[in-house]
Design goal:
156 residues, 35% helix, elongated, sequence-specific DNA binding (chains A, B), DNA-binding (chains A, B), alpha+beta, 5 helices, Alpha-Beta Plaits, DNA-binding, Arc Repressor Mutant, subunit A, WH-like_DNA-bd_sf (chains A, B), homodimer
Amino acid sequence: MSTNNKRNVDMDTVDRKLLIELLRDARTSLRRLSEEMNVSPATLHNRLTRLVQEGIVRGFTALVDYTKLGYSLSAVIMAKVDGKHLTEFEREIASSDNVVAVYDVVGEYDVVIISKFKNVEDLDAFLKQLLKNPKIERTYTSIVLNVVKEDPRIKI
Amino acid sequence: MSTNNKRNVDMDTVDRKLLIELLRDARTSLRRLSEEMNVSPATLHNRLTRLVQEGIVRGFTALVDYTKLGYSLSAVIMAKVDGKHLTEFEREIASSDNVVAVYDVVGEYDVVIISKFKNVEDLDAFLKQLLKNPKIERTYTSIVLNVVKEDPRIKI
DNA sequence: AGTGAAAAGCACTCGTT
DNA sequence: AACGAGTGCTTTTCACT
């Protein structure tokens, strides 16, 4: 009954180096990279197309300092949810504009939600909306005082 | 004694639209965008340079499906840390290759850590290393069974 | 699957307003 | 601060291997 159809993929040195460089700077030019790597630009273009098609690369984005845009408030919310409705609840919560991450976890709680807000009112409204959901048995909210690190990149 | 020198910045419609488009696709061309927006490519180029200089844009990256690269294990770790050493501890933990996020929170715990691993052994080693740190009074680890959502982009 | 070559597209700079 | 135009890069395609 798992819906997880992900599989690990063969990646050679070229794919790996390409991925590392795009993680470092998504706007870098394939041409310059191709010179460094002693392959043709066309090859890198093909490799990148394949990485995107296979879903290894989900897209390219700008990393933004949200505090400078007024999103000064983050929250880590843990919730215990009625098992029958967990998947539905997660889908619901993941579609929210304020939510950057949703993790299905094991332990005292079932879901961990990372969310961002412009002010206390917005966070309050989000939490109130959440709490009136009858699928939720219990929540624990940690208000984030300081985002020490937030970077989707890990060393691959 | 705050080290938070972040400030909110004036962003007009052009900045905002540029940012939204780069969040959507960081490899998009400024020229095409400039046509959509009825400004010159040179203006967009200047705007983007300014956004980067001001630190609103921290960089550009590829969004990667880490499960497809073998990082099938994530963990949400909460820690209660001796107050005197909190900042030092956070700096330490944030520099780890396996850590994508570190949040300074208020409540029962002081720090929330989001981390990724290839296997149970690596997670185990990370946790053991963490637990032998005398600054830590208490931890709570939630093993992530499923990453429902993980996307640094919020609607701005 | 990788390549070179060519055409189309693009970034970046600078002088002008 | 925004622009237009020019120069040199870059992507993308495609026929060939």
